[in-house]
Amino acid sequence: MVVGDAADWPLEEADCFYVNFASMAPQDAWIERLAPGGRLVMPLGVPSEPVRPNGPRFSRHGGIFVVRRQEGGFEAAYLCRAFFVFAEGGAQLIDMAEEERLEEAFRRGGAELVRSLVWKRPTDPARCWLCTPRWSLSYEPIGGKEWKRGGPKR
If you classify domain 6-107 with CATH, what class do you get? Predict the structure, then answer.
């Protein structure tokens, strides 16, 4: 058994990474250690207040996204609406402005139109479901190819 902060895992390159708690953003290790062709299944969520003092938080808005590392970048797709226990530790450290952006994106809708994850580079907010200074979920496919569950489509 391994005990540690999920914000630091995996320690080495991984073909598949499944996050079983809600987070407001992907962690560096989840994206940067994802092997070529590898997949990340990640619940994004906006945290609620704890139901009791020092109790767990749950996501009040949420959905599951899958990210696949390709040669030209990161393909991304919205799978479904979902609500998870919210992250603790490093995986939850996001500023209030990012929390507000994510909440607005869920309220606005359109997550099913997401086609790529833009990582640590600027992007056009008009082409994104969610745009932050560090990462974004974009409507634009990478390399001009659409990715569907059966594989890329032109």
Answer: alpha beta
